[in-house]
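QA checklist item 7 of 12: single-chain prediction sanity check.
[x] sequence parsed
[x] length recorded as 200
[x] structure emitted
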Amino acid sequence: MSEQRRAERLDQPREPRGLRLPRIDQETFGRWSEGIARGMGTANFIVYMTVVITIWFVWNTLAPANLQFDPYTFTFLTLVLSLQASYAAPLILLAQNRQADRDRVALEEDRRRATLQKADTEYLAREIAALRIAMGEVATRDFLRSELARLAEELDEAAQRRQRLERRQQERAPRGGGDPLDEPRDDLDGDFARDGRAEG
């Protein structure tokens, strides 16, 4: 009675009924099937199977009748080869499925890496474009050289003008009797303009 009540409880999972099949490790079985498929796909397997079938034919044809275990029509050999084919096909398909799964994972990884590389390339392209724009606003070596050359020319011209003004001052100083303030004369203050009007 208590057993029946326990089975009717809804807060506990029901135990599975029927025949329980043994659990098989899919990974181990898959590796085993791939090994068999690789072995069957080699030239050694074909050569060995050809040698075995030839020996089977020769033995069951030329051996004495009491020693022949599979006489002509070779029914047992046909059964063995049928069993081999019936097991080989699923094992090869299983190996192909595992290889397809590996290829799919590798393809997804390649696609992910390609996406990352594309993103990195686009980022680098944007950074290079930003650097080129920034470099357009930075003074280059040729620009600095031209500006320095222009400034040097202006300084030379200013020095030459000052030398000419000093020469003029020296030439006019004895005639004017000297300046009471001893101030150097230049055309910026208008001294020469005043002297010119005074002389005129």
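[x] summary fact logged: The mean pLDDT is 82.
[ ] second reviewer sign-off
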